[in-house]
Amino acid sequence: MKIDSIQNGIVIDHIAAGRGMQLYHLLQLDKLECSVAIIKNVTSRKMGKKDIIKVDGKVDIDIDAIGYVDPKATVNIIRNGELVEKRDIVLPERLVNVIRCKNPRCISSTEQELDQVFELKDREKGIYRCLYCEAKAEN
Amino acid sequence: MRSLIDILDLSVEELDEMVKVAEDIMADPAKYAHKCDGKKLATMFYEPSTRTRLSFEAAMYELGGNVLSVASAASSSAAKGESVADTAKMISCYADILAMRHPKEGAPLVASMNATIPVVNAGDGGHNHPTQTLADLLTIHCEKGRFDNLTIGLCGDLKFGRTVHSLIAAMCRYPNVKFVLISPTELKLPSYVKTEHIKPSGHAYEQTTDLEAVMPQLDVLYMTRVQKERFFNEEDYLRLKDSYILTPEKLKNAKKDMIIMHPLPRVNEISVAVDNDPRACYFKQAYYGKIMREALILKLLEVQ
Hey, what domains does chain A have and what are their CATH numbers? Predict the structure, then answer.
C-alpha cells in the first residue's frame, strides 16, 4: 500500500497498533477539511506493528492529547516536503478539555463552561484523575 | 488567601498549630470572643445538614462574627440555574468567608477558583469533608493524647464514607498508625485510597468483615452510617444498612481506653445503650468540631 508523502503538515508516527483511531477521534481530525490518512498495522522493526497518522495541512495538534493516548508516539512537522521538527511526547502534567469526566456526581457534569481538567497522579502507571472529583480517567 | 478543600491542603505543622489554637480556645473561650468582630461567614448548604451547618454558625458566633445563610438549595439562586462559579463571585461581595456543602463532587473547589474570599468545603457529595476530619483529629488528640502509635478501626460504609477517606489520608502522615478496615464486601474501601495513601505511607492495614474479631486490638473505633443518599439503588441500601450495629455486648472485648467515634448523624449503627459507655466520644466529637472550625476560621481569615 502506498500513501504519498505530505508537503506541509504533521506525521504522527510510532503509535501503538490499534490506537490510531482513538487518537484520530481525540484530536478531532474528522473535522479537518485537509487530507488525513490513518495507516493501521504498519510493519515496524522496533514495534512489530504500529499505526501512523498523516495530516496534509498546516494545523495545530494538541500534543498533550497525543501524550495521553500514547506517550511513545512521535510527532514530525513537515514543511515544503522536509522534516523541520521532531517533537518528543511525554505524559502531560495536565489535560485540559481532552477527555471528559464520566463521574455523574462530578461538578463538571453540570457546571456551565467549566474546563474538563485531569491531572497526572502516577507517571509510571499513567494515571490521571479529575481535578474536581478525583475520579480516575478511563483510557 | 487560603481555602480548605481537602484535608491535605493543610500541612502536619499547620494541623499541629490549629490543634494548639483549639486547645487554647477550650481553655479560655473569652479570649476569642471578639476575634472576628465585624466579619461575616456565609453558609451555602445545597445538601441537608444539621451538625456541620450549626457547627460553622456557632463557631463564627463564638468568635464574635456574624452569619449569612441560605435556608436550602431550593430557596437559593441555584434553583434558578445559577452556576457555582457565579454564586461564589456573588457571595464574595457580601461575606468574608464561605462554607459550602454541595452534592456535586468538586463544587467547593470550583467555588474557591472563582471566589475572592476563603472557601471551606463543608462536604462535597461522597468526596471530601475536611472539617469533619478536623473534628476527628481534635477528638483523637484530646482523647488519646497523640496521633501516632494508634490502631484505628474504621467500620461500616468505607466505600462512600468520605469522612473515612479523609481521616485515613490525614492519619497516614503520622508514624506507626495501623488501619483495620471493617465493612461488608460491597462497601470496601476504594482501592485508590489504599494505593495513594496507605501503601505509600508504609502503614499496616487489614481488611475484615468481622468487627468483634478485631475489637481487642483497636485504640479507636470509628463507626459510620450506611448513607442512603449515596445509593442509586434502594435495594442495595436496604440489604446493607444494618451490616454493623454496635452494642454493649460487642464492646466486651474492647480495650478499656478505646474511644468510639462517629461523624453523626447516627441512625441505628450504634445502639443508644452504648451512649453511657465512657468510651463513647461521638457527642464530644461534635463539640470538638465546633472548636476546630473556630480555629480554621481564625486561620483562613488570618486573625491573630
Answer: 9-87 (3.30.70.140), 94-130 (no CATH)
Chain CA centroid to CA B100, Å: 14
Provide the 3-class DSSP secondary structure of residue B252: coil
Mean pLDDT of B32-44: 97
Interchain proximity B107–A130, CB inside 8 Å: no
Alpha-carbon Rg for chain B, nearest whole angstrom, is 19
Question: What average pLDDT does the segment A70-99 reach?
Answer: 90
Note whether B242 and B283 are within 8 A (CB): no
Nearest to A130 by CA among A86, A82, A97, A85: A97
Give the residue ranges of DSSP H helices in chain B: 12-27, 51-62, 84-92, 107-114, 130-144, 162-171, 191-193, 199-201, 211-214, 234-240, 282-300
Residue (of A71, A86, A73) closest to A123 by Cα position: A71
pLDDT bucket at A68, cuts 50 / 70 / 90? confident
Round to whole Å and give the CA distance between B275 and B281: 9
Domains of chain B, CATH where assigned: 7-128+289-300 (3.40.50.1370), 131-286 (3.40.50.1370)
Q: Which among A121, A132, A136 has CB closest to B106?
A: A132
pLDDT at residue number A124? 86
**Surface-to-core class of residue B4, CB atoms within 10 Å of its CB (0-12 exposed, 13-18 middle, 19+ buried):** buried
Do the Cβ atoms of B126 and B162 come closer than 8 Å?
yes
Let me know if B53 is exposed, middle or buried by CB neighbors in 10 A (0-12, 13-18, 19+). Answer: buried
Give the C-alpha separation, B279 to B30, whole Å: 29
How high is the pLDDT of residue B229? 67
The answer to whether B9 and B136 are in contact (CB under 8 A) is: no
Cβ proximity of B187 and B243 under 8 Å: yes
Distance CA B29, CA A102 (A): 47
The answer to whether the beta carbons of residues B104 and B44 sit under 8 Å apart is no
Instruction: Inspect the interface and report whether the beta carbons of B105 and A121 lie closer than 8 Å.
Output: no
Please give the residue of chain A at the shortest CA–CA distance from B5: A132
Q: What is the pLDDT of residue A1?
A: 65
Cβ contact, residue pair A130, B106, below 8 Å: yes
pLDDT category at B208 given cuts 50, 70, 90 is: very high
Q: What is the DSSP string of B29-87?
A: GGGGTTTTTT-EEEEEESS--SHHHHHHHHHHHHTT-EEEE-S-GGGSGGGGT--HHHH
d(CA B191, CA B155): 16
Cα four-point dihedral sign A22, A28, A30, A32? negative
Which residues are CB-neighbours of B245 under 8 A, at least 6 positions away?
Answer: B268, B269, B270, B271
